[in-house]
Structure formats: structure tokens, C-alpha cells
């Protein structure tokens, strides 16, 4: 069965851990939508809601915490410190895993930065842009920004496969950033992550009003979806 989800996050009860991927802090400042979105408030409110709903002991931010390659702007660093403080104030431990955007993360994150992080239940959380260097009971990652078009609307989604990377259960999270462009998986034969070698085997879990609706395998679903 797929793991528990809350909005765009995943909760692993055996490890009391909430996983969040692809915050892309600084996206608003780098886009024309910046004046329309208080990015810090948006991320803070949605992360606080996920933490309150799951009461984790650990919150792992699974890569691409930052949007800008290289040294982050001061406001982006301030937003990351605000989110880390929010997690600590809720009684949980924040953990940062680096993604391909995070070359400057060590300058902004108030603590160590990991290439991957092993949970107490044997899960390895990584970003997903490169193969993890360690075996695991299951893998959880981001990076892909998966989305699925349902009845003409593009919806962010999870990807889940029982026998995925290294024949282990594998979960790909949607981007937590609402501004990160979603990749329409029904239009593709593959994605740029070694943790998802075949899209045909994955089950999309579409996020609708905070709930996750799990669909059949993409190979079975493709004939019913428009590829346009």
C-alpha cells in the first residue's frame, strides 16, 4: 500500500517522519508571480498544517530547498531559517537533504546538509536527481515534480511503485512549491530520475483539495488519458 500522505507531503508512521520535497524557496522572487505571492507565508502556513496534522518527530526536506543555483539571496536564507524554526517549535527535528539546486544550501541552512538520510524504519530519503549510494527498505524522493492531467486539469501527483528502484518500494513526492512546474507524466515515457526507470509501472496519486486519489498503474491508465 502507498504511504500516508497529507497534501503534498508524505508521513511514514514507523519512523514518525514527515517528508517534504522541492520547496524551491526563492521561486517567487525569480518569477513574474513574485508580487502576487507571499512565498514565505505560503510555505510556512502549509508546512505548519502538515506538521500539526501528523505530529512527526522528524521532518526531512528532501532536496531543492532553494530555487536559485548558487549562493541564495538573503530573503531565501531567512525563509529557510523560519521554516526550520517552525519545525523545532512544533517539537520535531528538521533535516535537510541536498538537491541539484542546492549548491548554496550550506550557507543558508542552520545545520548539517545530507546527500541522503536513512530513517529508523530503513527508508532512505534522497532528492532523486542521482542514484543513492546506500541500500534501503524503501526510497522516498522528489525532483521529478510529477503531475497528471485529469479531465483537462493538470494536477500535482505522487508516484508510487511497489517494486521500484533496486526492486524496493519507491515513492516520488510532488513539489511542495506551488510555483514549480509540474511534469505531465502521461505525456512521457520516462523522467530524469534514476529512481523511476519506468513510468509504466508507477501508480499516480493525484492531490485534490489536500486528499490523494490513487489511480491504477500508468500503463493501464494511459489509454484513458489524452496526450496533448
UniProtKB/TrEMBL annotation:
This is Metallophosphoesterase. InterPro entries: Calcineurin-like_PHP, Metallo-depent_PP-like. PANTHER family: BLR1149 PROTEIN (PTHR39323). Pfam families: Metallophos (PF00149). It comes from Haloplanus ruber. Residues 18-129 form the Calcineurin-like phosphoesterase domain.
